[in-house]
Design brief:
InterPro entries: Pra-immunoreactive, RDD. The relative contact order is 0.18. The longest helix is centred in the N-terminal third of the chain and has 30 residues. A two-stranded antiparallel sheet has the order 1-2. By secondary structure, it is mainly α.
Length: about 180
């Protein structure tokens, strides 16, 4: 009589053994960019709630009043949002697209590592914003420059040995394809 192993239950990456996702494949660029766009749409809700909270607490009546304070507040709110979810493994958009953030060895990342990844992820936007700051460009021209840089930054991942985004390489993190095993 043979004894079969007990049934396994799905594990999340945070409960998975250390390095369990070390060999997980990198999602392709289209999948990661679709996740990125979906994340941007979800951030509208975060911005709405944070903006409402900021406007209420600061008694701001005009959107241009306290603009820099609002931007700093949103930077902190985004940092809390992403650091919290990345330390748990994935945001809602990443969960939808079956993508997880892990360390280079496949282990879950710590909150300080997630915070480093958040700060480095601003490489998606800061270079073009710094480049257009001294000029009086129209909104359309600015959008073309920012979107052009985003496309270049995304395509640069093709030159990374494991096709990771460069801010992930600098932060010591990886994006991996992850699905919960079926029962």
């Amino acid at each position: 009589m043979s004894v079969s192993p007990p049934p396994t239950t799905p594990q999340s990456a945070t409960n998975a053994p250390r390095g369990a996702l070390a060999g997980a494949p990198t999602p392709n660029l289209w999948r990661r960019m679709a996740c990125w766009l979906y994340e941007g749409m979800l951030m509208f809700g975060v911005v709405f709630i944070a903006g409402y909270l900021f406007g209420t607490l600061s008694q701001t009546r005009n959107a241009m009043d306290n603009r820099h304070a609002l931007q700093a507040f949103l930077f902190v709110v985004f940092g809390i949002y992403f650091t919290w979810f990345w330390a748990k493994g994935q945001t809602l958009a990443q969960k939808t697209w079956h993508i997880r953030v892990v360390g280079t060895a496949g282990q879950p990342i710590s909150q300080p590592r997630a915070l480093l990844r958040y700060v480095l992820s601003w490489l998606w936007f800061l270079p073009p914003l710094a480049a257009i700051a001294p000029f009086s460009l129209s909104g359309g021209e600015s959008a073309v420059i920012v979107l052009g840089w985003v496309a270049i930054w995304a395509l640069l991942s093709r030159f990374h040995p494991t096709r990771q985004f460069w801010h992930d390489a600098l932060a010591g993190t990886r994006l991996v394809h992850y699905e919960i095993p079926k029962k």
